[in-house]
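User: Please write out a complete single-protein record containing the residue sequence and its fold in token form, without commentary.

AI:
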Amino acid sequence: MSTSWIKVSEPIPHVFHVELARGPVNAFSNEFTRQYSEVFDRLGGLRLDGPTPPDVRAVVLSSAIPKLFTAGLDLSEAANIDTLTGAGADGARSSLDLRQYILEFQEAIGKPAKCPFPVIAAVHGPVVGLGMDIISACDVRYAAEDAQFSIKEVDIGLAADIGTLAYLPKTVGNASLAHELAYTARMFSAAEAETLGLVSKVVKGSQEDVVQAALALGKVIASKSPVAITGTKRLLAHARDHSVAESLEYTSLWNSAMLMTRDMAECLGATKGKRLPQFAGLKPIFSKL
């Protein structure tokens, strides 16, 4: 499942490691973004073509480049905005073309949020601009103590539009600080990111240390019932975007089906027998076609 700029491995059974590897700074071009989207589509069983999706129960997303997570958007490509909208087109047509491009970009970078398993971002060094959009769409964020973050878009004359400003108000606990960071584009530390609520853990060390911590978390998640984990992810996402009453109603519908899983009996049997539970994976039905 690896591509020219993304490495995919399975260091722990059912825990996959996705590494961004476009030197020198993991700048996201259109092609890099396409590869990113395709990797998560295949891991999540969201594509009908290609090989049968593996039994993925958690993913760790990190950078293969030792000094940073990502410098964000490839500005050399982004500068050629006329190629996206059609040079000479009138304002309305240009706007429609550009809107479609933005929607497709949002869809690609938001793929981790749509996967049926948790995605853990393990970041080190600078996480700039689009890097914030990328980690915002992940379920859990760990940072090495050398990580630095910036919502950089105002410094190039635009509002962040790929995910950060949509996710941040709903995932952090300090609205004042979130606004300050978005308005100023200043770099902030891993410690400040933890205070903001952007990351749940700051790991001593750098690249290898934070990746190992994230893989350890992935291993714990992968040991749980896949039915319970995917349901928990879906219900948390629904609760984020709906009222309490709506979320409870949705939960009743979801669990009226999911409570019939054999995983509950397996959990009870494993506890009684003092053994580790064994669960079947969640292979999409079209993988058998």
Summary: Confidence is low (pLDDT under 50) at residues 285-289.
